[in-house]
Amino acid sequence: MTTAHPFDPTPILEGIRRWVEIETPTESPEQVNKLADLVTEGYRGLPATVERIAGHSGCGDHLVARSSWGQDAPGILVLSHLDTVHPLGFIERLPFRIAGDSAFGPGIYDMKGGAYLAYHAFRQVCADGARPPLSITQLYVSDEEIGSPTSRALIESEGRKAKYVLVTEPARDGGKVVTGRKGVGRFEVFIKGVPSHAGTRPQDGRSAIRELGNVIQTLEAMNDLKRGVTVNVGVVRGGTRPNVIAEEAYAEVDTRVPTIADSEELVAKILSLKSRTEGVTVKVIGELNRPPYEKSNAGAALYEHARTLAAEIGFDLIDTSTGGGSDGNFTAPHTATLDGLGVDGQGAHTHYEQMYISSIEPRARLLYRLYQTLR
């Protein structure tokens, strides 16, 4: 190794701070691109090429950093995102600071800390001189927090080419890695009724809001917590004035499903919602925007390998499933995927978001050992 202690948390945390202090809300592509500049700069002088894919549709650029070795065969794909949910200026409310074992800052836990660890582990592999058996490709996308609309095709094509996918989303509850995630569906409901005067001619009207009430009850009845199926009507709008029978109503719906079979059943049910009121139409549009990530045999073997490495490093690596989606949902159906390999901490998407400094060294070492040993 080139340095006395290549996984010393202090310089790693300094690198993470530089990434965190460039705020990167998904909807500010120029900010995301500033961070992309810094990330690209970090690969200068390493045995790697960086391809920059121009952003579109209001999103920033994506980066694909490929090791100069092993690119002729399926290798390791590392998935990270540069965007955060926090609006521009949030860093004034949540400045980078250290208190005890916690380092605070917008996106530090979800997921700049983990993305930086994967980069640092790659640098270390390059410094070793001996090349690992597989190529390493690091993909940094700009739009994960809004469902990866402009990067999904890139993630899927790189995922299909890879033998293993490592996702640097944050660890869960005390350092657990993720071997399953629910699929995520998003739907919009448009209801059209017939307006009339609510006082003088109520019988002439057909209320879109009343029909929306029926639709909401039907959707709520699809919840099945035992099976892990959730349906949430999260946004509703309708009507124009209190004395007018509402002509229009609208809702936005979020669904989460643990398996492909559940998703097929639920999506079909939601898309086929019908009006129960004569003269009122119900139209539903939407889809599953992230497929369920089920623990496959290949994924389980990858987890077992990581667990063995973690034990050698000196910690117990436990796996879990979660309801939140990630870019790992796009690769898990066809490539061995292990998620939640980023830093441990708490408060993703909140005003107290933080990572645990004590998680830097063990988790950077784990990524480094995965790079070295996967074959």
UniProtKB/TrEMBL annotation:
Pfam families: M20_dimer, Peptidase_M20. The active site is at D83, E144. The keyword DNA damage does not apply. GO terms for molecular function: hydrolase activity; metal ion binding. The keyword Cell wall biogenesis/degradation does not apply. Residues 179-271 form the Peptidase M20 dimerisation domain. Transmembrane segments: none annotated. Keywords: Hydrolase, Metal-binding, Zinc. Its cofactor is Zn(2+). InterPro entries: ArgE/DapE_CS, Bact_exopeptidase_dim_dom, Pept_M20_glutamate_carboxypep, Peptidase_M20, Peptidase_M20_dimer, Peptidase_M20A. PROSITE patterns: ARGE_DAPE_CPG2_1. It comes from the Bacteria. This is M20 family metallopeptidase. It comes from Bradyrhizobium archetypum.
